[in-house]
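Human: Here is a favour to ask of a fellow structure person. Comparing notes only helps if you start from a blank page. I am asking you to supply a protein in sequence and structure-token form. Write it directly below this note and I will take it from there.

Assistant:
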Amino acid sequence: MGAPSRLAPPQALLEAATAPVPARDPGSALAEHWHRGVFMEIFVRAWKDGNGDGIGDLRGLIDTLPYLQRLGVRGLWLMPIHPSEDGDHGYAVTDYRGIHPDYGTLADFDELLQQAHARGIGIVLDYVINHSAAAHPLFQSSRHSGRSPHRDWYLWQSRHPAGWRIYDNDPWKRDGEASYFAAFSPHMPDFNWRHPAVQAWHHDNLRFWLNRGVDGFRFDAVGHLVENGPDAWDCQPENHDIMARIRTLLDGYERRFMVCEVPGDPQGFARSSGSAFAFDLSPHLIAMARGDEAATTAASAYFETAPHTLSTLLSNHDSFAGARVADQLQGHTAQMRVAAAALMTLPGTPFVYYGEPVGMAGHRSLPADPALRTPMSWTDCPLTAGFSTGRPFRALSPNAGTHHVAQQLDAPDSLHRFYERLIALRHGRPSLLRGDYRVLAVQGSAWAFARTLGAQTTVVAFNGGAAPVSLTLPPGLAAGAASLLLPAHAVWVGGEG
């Protein structure tokens, strides 16, 4: 990327980007508790290419909806699909109300919504709330002149502030005689969330998509919204108020879901705005699956105090959340099953990263984040892995030849079939979707808990260790008193009612 332009954007672009959007709820075609079901996170660029240009797109995603329906997922989180300056991951948005031309058109997106809803699948968009692209018309207007009506939509200082370090970088970027704030990159300037017009504009953007039938949003970098100085820039109190107001906006629509990305305080934001990713649980689940006794104890205790509205995960598209599960567990399939079973049976909304059900590995020769975002492994084709009829935009997963959908889809003992059974089990047991949580026993590398809703109780036990462990369960909840629901090595799931 070159230096951002200093030209003022055409007035027509500014008017189109800021037009007010009144609320118009089209209703929801989804089941009442759809958002407690299993989600899949999809990087559209890497999922399925529908036109042969080597880049995944909405048409490819539409074509794979039958596969996703068979897998059983109830929701899809799509990484940013808006026009963006970065040309890859999408987190430098240039148009919050459009579709990146690499991915298709608004008409394609409307068809995706229609066909996904017909299969009982919700669509959740990634919304980049903290910053825009430097190429966005609003920032171009902001930086064109100190007298611009949009100057205060971003954070500007006439004198370069001193003493700031965020992620080992100075977040203030010099631009002529002034400096603007950009915590992540000079090409991603932060919005001024103290400005009422900024809040109103974001609400209009959200209504634009909600009015089309979008089922919710994953909000990026929520901890960064407001800064109160060099030592107070993460998870400030004002951020809770901002997200709570957005939760209120979504509550004006039927059955809409939101989840925050905020590693610094997931439990706090789950309480204030509905849901947040439980990044503080994920490492325990992975280590528990390896037989780590301390991690088993920590994982077992987590939901005794944490909100049950949290969203759980094992990995995602960011390297700070860890490598792909297959790499963290060194390809150990039994351990991957234990981790997946914990994800699907604990409270919260479970999110599966694309490729996880077949054990996709990351690419060790790519930089950290791109290594996690390789094309989906559909077949054993050495050139494309079934992702495209053209040349894929990025190198394939290194184990695509041995871990792919075509190989595992109908193999009865495959990891993919295990995921299918787990997802069906969760969706078929109300106690797993919405029940309470009670630890029954913890012994070394083994752990058992109960989920109860009304007259139905589901008992789950795991052992990530290599040696058998005996657990003593309360009377009436012992394995012999329940029906076995999921036979699997190191995982026992039984239920009553």
